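retry 2 of 3: previous attempt timed out while embedding S-adenosylmethionine. Reduced batch size to 1 and resubmitted. Inputs unchanged:
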Amino acid sequence: MKRISLVHEAHKAVQTVLQAGDYAVDATVGNGHDTLFLARHVGPGGIVFGFDIQQNAIDQTRSRLEQGKVETPFELFRVSHAVMTNTIPAQFHGRIKAVMFNLGYLPGGDKLLITRTDTTIAALNQALRVLAPDGLLTILAYPGHSGGDQEADEVDKWCADLDGSRYDKLCINSQENQKSMPRLYLVNPA
Ligand SMILES: C[S@@+](CC[C@H](N)C(=O)[O-])C[C@H]1O[C@@H](n2cnc3c(N)ncnc32)[C@H](O)[C@@H]1O
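retry 2 succeeded.
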């Protein structure tokens, strides 16, 4: 059965809203692939804010951005995305066009340092507060690893509980009828 690349789907969706000069957030920078993608799209007139709790993820992302030769201003924070609204300056709240979450552990890193349900849900609520009215929130969740099933279920519930008159939401499964496979959630203000 065909398996969809959800990273690709997330990028495709973000490209539909992101323009040069926009502000964007990578809530889990990891190895910096999504951060570089966002930086390339917003360009030198925009800004990308990035979060990760691991110093090696911050370092890796910084060097990927430098090697990618993007001129986009960026700020990388070594703090939990659960303090997003306190960390991103207030003047950007309500003006962020894309917030991307790619949950789980750092590929090639310590698999015990994973995103955790409580901080993920706190961060998702804050992401909605910084998001622009025409912005998009993407959440890539990975059931099937320790802690991942519960986190993915809670993200699913969080999404289902969002007021449908205020938010459009879509869930894309990487493989149909496979509950243990990765899923992508797309949320945008209606
Ligand atoms: C799947 S990786 C992200 C991949 C990344 N987006 C990329 O393009 O390479 C998940 C990342 O989330 C980070 N993380 C875990 N808990 C976090 C938290 N509370 N706040 C921010 N980042 C966190 C991990 O350290 C890890 O680097």
